[in-house]
């Protein structure tokens, strides 16, 4: 009789754990959140404020019909400009129609959209067509180049490099002609620590480990292996500059997230 009770208790606990894991994975994979991060700099005018929305690692996923939930949230956030840090599509994506429609409608919300490529773009046989379509829609392609952006009283450098992990990057080309007195942001799909005077690097690629455990963090990340040092969030580097890693919206290899909810990031830079 005692054995039967123990078996029933074990079965109940097991079912509860399985249901929790399934429910948590479904929620984290299919419902996104907004992560807000604030940074201050004396390179911006006092009391000035820049709102940057970062989208990373969508992997052609949809949140609602044609990403309606995503677009609604972005409209409410009303950023000054939007940056896409790679892996907008998957290497196996054959039809770009839905992704391009999302970008077209994103540009209607905010005409200032900037893009750098990720490893999945370069792994896709039709990546050149994708790049051409994005450019023709009005997306500013920042692979290995830079742009000077003014917003109100603030003027910054926005640099970008093509994906590092597939060896398409050229930081020297992106750096050429940059005014080092301005606040400088680098877009790089793969997280990198740069020696040059770059104030903030915005990256993706890691998916935050995709599967995480409380107290442990990300289990595995591309190029870093198990228990990565840099998986998600804001890191202060040796020179006092910052690296921010967005854990992204989509998935790769395994179509699930766990204790690692899909996200977009709102980066707020305030002058001091």
Protein model, in words:
The protein is α/β, with parallel strands linked by helices and 272 residues long. It has one domain: Purple Acid Phosphatase, chain A, domain 2 (4-Layer Sandwich). The protein is 27% helix and 28% strand. The chain has helices at 2-30, 68-77, 97-109, 119-123, 127-137, 171-175, and strands at residues 33-41, 49-55, 81-85, 113-116, 140-141, 145-151, 154-161, 183-188, 200-203, 212-213, 217-218, 220-221, 225-226, 233-236, 242-245, 263-271. It has a 6-stranded mixed beta sheet with strand order 1-16-2-3-4-5, covered by helices on one side. It has a 6-stranded mixed beta sheet with strand order 6-7-8-9-15-14. Strands 10-11 form a two-stranded antiparallel sheet. The longest helix has 29 residues, at 2-30. The model has no long low-confidence stretch (mean pLDDT 95).
Entry keywords:
272 residues, Purple Acid Phosphatase, chain A, domain 2, six-stranded mixed beta sheet, Metallophosphoesterase, Metallo-depent_PP-like, hydrolase, metal ion binding, metal-binding
Number of domains: 1
Q: Roughly how many Å apart are the termini?
A: 71 Å
CATH H-level superfamily? Metallo-dependent phosphatases
Number of strands: 16
- Extract low-pLDDT stretches: none
Task: Just name the CATH architecture.
Answer: 4-Layer Sandwich
How does the helix and strand content classify structurally? Answer: alpha/beta
The portion of residues forming beta strands comes to 25-35%
Choose one word for the global shape.
globular
């Amino acid at each position: 009789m005692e054995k039967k009770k123990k078996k029933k208790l074990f079965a109940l606990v097991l079912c509860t754990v399985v249901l929790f894991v399934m429910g948590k994975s479904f929620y984290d994979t299919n419902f996104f959140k907004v992560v807000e991060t604030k940074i201050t700099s004396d390179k911006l005018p006092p009391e000035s404020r820049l709102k940057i929305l970062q989208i990373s690692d969508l992997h052609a996923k949809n949140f609602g019909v044609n990403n309606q939930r995503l677009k609604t949230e972005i409209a409410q956030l009303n950023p000054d400009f939007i940056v896409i840090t790679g892996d907008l599509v998957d290497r196996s994506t054959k039809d770009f129609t839905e992704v391009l429609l999302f970008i077209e409608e994103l540009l209607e919300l905010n005409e200032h959209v900037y893009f750098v490529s990720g490893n999945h773009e370069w792994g896709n046989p039709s990546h050149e067509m994708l790049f051409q379509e994005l450019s023709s829609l009005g997306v500013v392609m920042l692979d290995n180049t830079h742009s000077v952006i003014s917003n109100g009283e603030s003027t910054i450098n926005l640099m970008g490099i093509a994906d590092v992990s597939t060896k398409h990057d050229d930081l020297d080309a992106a750096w050429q002609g940059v005014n080092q007195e301005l606040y400088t942001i680098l877009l790089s799909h793969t997280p990198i620590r740069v020696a040059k005077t770059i104030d903030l690097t915005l990256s993706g690629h890691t998916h935050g480990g995709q599967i995480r455990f409380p107290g442990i963090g990300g289990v595995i990340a591309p190029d870093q292996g198990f228990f990565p040092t840099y998986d998600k969030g804001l890191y202060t580097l040796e020179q006092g500059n910052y690296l921010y890693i967005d854990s992204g919206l989509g998935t790769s290899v395994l179509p699930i997230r766990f204790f690692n909810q899909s996200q977009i990031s709102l980066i707020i830079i305030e002058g001091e």
